[in-house]
Design a protein that fits this description.
By secondary structure, the protein is mainly α. The chain contains ten helices and four strands.
């Protein structure tokens, strides 16, 4: 996924951290989505005051037109990110060729939890995110890690988690850590924390 797709998330996280805000980026985005939902109730005086005091938002940013613009931008960004994730993912045939294995073996690996596949609708092609392959090898330790991802966590969050550098992993991404022979348990414990964000 492009750096540009995650730039907004990084900037928002930085802005929230500067203000000592305990909200995660996902929680803050949920608030914005809720605010932009036409069916949602208008902001209370306290909610408006909180947003105006603790963020860079202005009164103009809290108008119905601004809410709709934010809602549209969030939807467009998400659609673009999902398209990029799908476009960069590999089909069963591509994974089979990459790993030099039969398609049935790839499907068994998916069922066993050795490979992570994007959720698909009925009759759709199974897609495997590219982050779990390095060269012609599968990132080690996925069988321990994949089952620990909370069911409600979006595949884009998983991709971001697995490819971004983490202080806890000596500045390596989970993929880099695992490929360098790092302890699977260290990544698994970070995955467990995703459920609390």
């Amino acid at each position: 996924m492009s750096t540009e797709a995650f730039d907004h998330t990084t900037r928002l996280e930085s802005a929230l951290n500067r203000r000592g805000n305990p909200l995660s980026v996902d929680a803050f985005m949920d608030i914005l989505r809720e605010m932009s939902d036409p069916a949602s109730e208008p902001l209370s005086t306290g909610e408006r005051a909180f947003l105006l005091e603790t963020t860079d938002l202005t009164e103009e940013d809290l108008t119905p037109q601004a809410h709709e613009a934010v809602r549209m931008q969030v939807a467009e960004d998400r659609a673009l990110a999902e398209k990029e994730a799908r476009d960069s993912a590999l089909t069963t045939g591509a994974v089979s060729e990459l790993l030099g294995r039969q398609g049935a073996s790839i499907r068994r690996s998916k069922l066993a939890g050795d490979l992570y596949a994007l959720p698909t609708g009925n009759g759709r092609t199974t897609l495997f995110p590219a982050w779990q392959f390095v060269g012609s090898q599968v990132v080690p330790g996925l069988r321990t890690i994949i089952p620990n991802f909370p069911q409600y966590v979006h595949p884009l969050t998983i991709q971001q988690f697995m490819t971004e550098e983490k202080e806890e992993l000596d500045g390596r991404s989970p993929v880099g850590w695992l490929c360098a022979g790092g302890a699977v348990e260290a990544v698994a414990s970070l995955v467990a924390e995703l459920g609390y964000e």
